[in-house]
Specification:
mainly alpha, Farnesyl Diphosphate Synthase, two-stranded antiparallel sheet, globular
Length: about 325
């Protein structure tokens, strides 16, 4: 979608206003001071910023069906707390040192503290969901299903580390659970709080699901093609960890024999030098895996935007269309 700069700036300002609203609510969360080993890491994790994308998606979905964001703000914060729980535990499993340019909870404290903090974050997110004034049972069902799916997605991701062969269809199933589930839950819960129709709810859920799929493939792409300072993580981290990303699987599908030997080193979890990682990135480029990833991101983004045809409020859904395109162009 090619927008006039003034309109794009207007949408960015609207997004920032929603983000700031969520940020203020997060800062105002009244966590106890003790036990410090639980709540200090939670405050640290939640203060690290980020896009607040899941929370903003929930608010946008609510307004897209004519709802009031005052009714939705606690649910929006809950989705951000849930998302940050997944990051805290993900960093333990990945032995990650950096997240958003600062030390991870796991690295700043230790694995036990990070596990405990993440567990408490789930509980705190449930407390926030229970404060939503409407349709609690339906919202709890959607929220709980998202939590189950994201854990299953992480489980598939972990299983893939031990497997030498993973298909792209299996990868898609994994990311729909690991990334798409929380985004689709955010948009569906927003539709529920805003009293949207069943048609609205289905449309917004589909939007979130395909946006999540595009978002995860973009993450895979930025891991090798991004700017480390902007991305906030070490470039080539997925290659070092032997992650079965879209790029790796596509390169193995498209690569020739001379490429496959190096790619199998990634799959086998062999320790790779900085030079090896650069070679793998070049293989991704030469085989067309990078270009294939870009095409898939655009395809999923288009499906996400087309899903919004099922939402009647044209004015409010324009921002969701803009956001989908914006995420296609992101650098972090």
């Amino acid at each position: 979608m090619n927008l006039q700069p003034e309109l794009s700036n207007y949408y960015q300002l609207k997004y920032n206003n929603y983000k700031d609203l969520i940020e203020d609510q997060i800062k105002g969360l009244g966590f106890p001071k003790t036990p410090e080993v639980v709540y200090k890491p939670i405050r640290y994790a939640l203060s690290s910023g980020g896009k607040r994308l899941r929370g903003v998606l929930l608010l946008l979905a609510c307004t897209a069906v004519g709802g009031n964001i005052k009714s939705a703000i606690n649910a929006a914060v809950a989705m951000e707390v849930l998302h940050n729980f997944t990051l805290v535990h993900d960093d333990i499993m990945d032995n990650a040192k950096l997240r958003r340019g600062q030390k991870t909870v796991y690295y700043k404290w230790d694995a036990n503290v990070a596990i405990l903090a993440g567990d408490e974050m789930i509980a705190q997110a449930y407390k926030l969901i229970l404060e939503v004034p409407v349709r609690k049972i339906e919202i709890l069902k959607v929220y709980t299903d998202a939590l189950v799916q994201v854990c299953e997605g992480q489980g598939f991701d972990k299983e893939f580390e031990c497997r030498k062969r993973v298909t792209i269809s299996e990868y898609f199933k994994m990311i729909l659970k690991k990334t798409g589930a929380v985004m689709s839950a955010s948009t569906e819960i927003g539709a529920l709080i805003g009293s949207g129709s069943t048609k609205d709810r289905i449309a917004l859920r589909s939007y979130g699901l395909y946006l999540g799929r595009a978002f995860q493939i973009m993450d895979d792409y930025l891991d090798v093609m991004g700017n480390e300072k902007e991305f906030g993580k070490q470039i080539g981290g997925d290659i070092r960890e032997g992650k079965k990303t879209y790029l790796l699987l596509k390169a193995m599908e498209l690569g020739k024999n001379k490429d496959l030997k190096m790619l199998k080193s990634v799959v086998s979890g062999n320790r790779l030098s900085t030079g090896d990682i650069k070679k793998v990135i070049n293989i991704y480029i030469d085989t067309g895996a990078i270009e294939a990833a870009r095409r898939e991101i655009l395809r999923c983004t288009k499906i996400a935007k087309n899903s919004l045809n099922g939402v009647d409020n044209n004015k409010s859904k324009e921002l969701l269309v803009w956001l989908a395109d914006k995420l296609c162009e992101r650098t972090s």
